[in-house]
Amino acid sequence: MNLSELWRLYEADKIIQGFSPKTLKAYSLQHKMLMLELGDWL
Predict the structure, then answer these.
(1) CA distance 10 to 24
(2) What is the tally of structural domains in the chain?
(3) SS3 call for 9
(4) Is 30 within 8 Å of 14 (Cβ atoms)?
(5) What pLDDT, on a 0 to 100 scale, did the predictor assign at position 42?
(6) For residue 1, what pLDDT is reported?
(7) CA 13, 21, 39: angle at the middle one, nearest 5?
(8) Do 7 and 42 touch, CB atoms closer than 8 A?
(9) Could you tell me which residues come within 8 angstroms of residue 6 by beta carbon, excluding any fewer than 6 positions away?
(10) Sign for the pseudo-dihedral over CA of 4, 30, 28, 23
(11) Domain, as residue range, for 33
């Protein structure tokens, strides 16, 4: 499992929990920044 797959699962969970689209967008940006630094491995 790589970081992209983990992100999709995490995002789906947060949608179910009712997180706002703006919060999810902010989280997505943080994920993209992490991916730039670490790559897509785990």
Answers:
(1) 10
(2) 1
(3) helix
(4) no
(5) 64
(6) 84
(7) 65
(8) no
(9) 42
(10) positive
(11) 3-38
